[in-house]
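## retry 2 of 3
previous attempt timed out at serialization; input unchanged, resubmitting
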Amino acid sequence: MRQKSMKKYDIIIAGAGPAGLTAAVELSKKFKILVIERRKPGTTSSTWYSYADRAAKYNIEEAVTTRFKEIRFTSPTQKHYMKDDCVVLDHNKVLELWIKRAKANGVVIRQEAFRDYKYADGGVKVITSKGEYFTRLLIDAMGSGSEIIARHNLIKRHDAWVIYGGLIKHEKHEKPYFLEYYPLNDKDNTYVGIHPHSDTETNIYVFQGRSNTMGNPAELKEIFNKTIAELEPNGEKIQNLGGTIVSGSLKKYALDNIIFFGASGMLNPDGCGMGFNEILKQHQTFAKGIAKAMKKNALDQKTLSKVADSLRDQETLNFQKIIGAFSLYFIKSKGKWDGGVKWLNAMGEESKYWMRNEFTMDWIMKANLRLHKVIPIKETVSMIPMDNLPFVLEQLARFSVKAATSVVKNRMKK
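## retry succeeded, writing output
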């Protein structure tokens, strides 16, 4: 009798962050959706930037606070100005927009913590802190700390950028802040991120790379306080900022009637802390795949895994793994990321496609060859751990052969 009294939904989404809300907005056009979130829906401690074309395409221009023509990267001896039409977003406003659109489509959003799930009647019974619900499909958008992923021990590998900071209210400067990333050149390999919201409010944070762990943002509090004392001694923190941007891989990206999306599905690319932008890029493709599977009532693990795989190009993944390996170990070298900025300079105006995560095969081959030229093999071997080294060298060699073959074919055509 209890099961009959349970409220039923076509899809339940656990998590009301960017992944969960974008999926809800798209899928609610065709399905009855419930979103559950353990915290107050629409709040976040993140900070996001994107690009003018994406803000327009995905209808979030209303949340744009500032615009820039470049991203600045610096290291002890190098500088790179990545030319692009960039926008900094009010992260709370973005979530508010998505919640408003989801509710307009009939989505039910509840502040309830996910507790458990059980298979029943060809679907899933979802148990929360406040009740039980039935659904044909559960989308896990709970992030890298997902209880489902932990229960099934699904994480194969994960690295992370650990972040701690805040929205700082400060005096207007004669020289305003830019969208920028630079190192502190300290023993802990700490970097500073600058996301200006206005002339007098700026998201400032410190971050560090972690290998095989998600890390703890609170560990960076002291470094952040020292950084702010130097940058903005009279500044006031008006909102906290912190968390982890996790990348890696899972043993499985779906189970029967369950699929992982966003950070839960390790959607962030290696070596590029752009999880928000990946969700912008992929949520419509994801929703189309889910809609198709729902229509066919094909919600088995194999079918849902194909939906998850559609978000990942293997050549791009291989390239990102190489960059990910260098990202975490460049900073341990004497130059503290000098090699990385040298590579960006070698890419010139084409460097922007790295942060955009928009690659053609020709770009990937060119990027690998230029990376290989600016970072000597001897230095590579000294920086990359032995368990990563065979893969990195294999991919560099493979792309070198492909590039050479491509050159020969082009010459023969001429």
